[in-house]
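dumping this here before i forget
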Amino acid sequence: SAPTVSDVRVQYTAPFDYTMWASSYNATVSPGGSATTGLTAQVTTPGGSSPNPVAWSCFAGCTGGITVNFTGYNPADPCTMTTGQNCTVSAQIDTTGATSLGPHILTLRASVQIDPLGGLLTKDITFTLTVAKPFDYSMMWNATAPCTGANPCAATVPQNGSIQATFNLTQ
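structure:
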């Protein structure tokens, strides 16, 4: 006999999904400096094939002397996401002395394999790296005693004594 509507059962499995976040989304460094942020991917909806390996990359913005190294990520042995498991790495963002000053917008990406044929589900976070001139200053004594004329800027001060001197700081 033919099946009836009451004989048919439909089972729906939600597609695999995950969320991604960072421990920080911006940093300011001097040229040649480094910043670090932690990245975490966590399953929100199990589904599809399992386990799900995670690959980490800098998808955009890593140019002009900016590189990102992911500590805790081994492409030959990636973290695999299963229900309730987080995959976490530390992203070290390095600059060179030639990296241009100003904000640099980086796109850091997690790519998770969602099927045996290599299909990927990607999630991105935006990280703003500002490269700023380091604080520097020069100091110049004003022409006041004891630093006047040919006198060097030195004086002997008796114990509990004092001298008055003024100087200008310029950035």
